[in-house]
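Hi R.,

Quick one: here's the Ion transporter sequence you asked about.
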Amino acid sequence: MAARFSAARNRVRANGLLLGAIVIHNLTYPLSGAGMPWPALFYAFYASIFVFGTWALSGSGGLRAGMAGIGLAVLAAGLANSCDPGPAAALAVYLSSILYHLGMVVVLVRYTFSGRQVMTDVLLAATSLYLVIGSGFAALLGLIEWAAPGSFVAGSGVPVGWQQLLYFSYVTMTTVGYGDITPVGFYAQSVAAFEAIGGTLYSVLLLSRLVGLHASRE
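And here's the predicted structure, written out as tokens:
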């Protein structure tokens, strides 16, 4: 009994740390554009978050090794883009970040939807999954803007960068839609619409899953 309680507490701690790290990453992205050593610290933190999450939440050796490799690619691409910005470095950041997010989505989907009880760790993992999907879409939207500049237009007239796309991604996924950033390109509009639909479906699927788990205990 004590061993089970300890294991459950460790799972809650791991998921809580992951969620906290994701929130901190999303709030500190502007550091990536500051002078050294801030970009190095930011990308080192970013490149370790999902690696830690995979090792804590998944027992798959393949996933662990794959995420460790992608994490190193994210770090290298981020540092290259900070030290010598250019189209190639930006492309490397977008592509590595998309793969990095996809890997974490796989880990969190398995963890969240394979649970047999509605426990605190499952709720924390589900919240992390929602945030990871949002920031993953930001990387995809950034890739679209890289491939077709002008795909997103800000009402204020300022250039649309990753920080603005991260904001736009969460606003879109939650279907708030302030309208201060507008997708004007075909691919930008298609992905934004897909994200809005996906965000709504995720909430519905998660709620039905949690209700089903709760009902099965009665």
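Residues 32 and 39 are 4 Å apart (CA to CA).

Cheers,
M.
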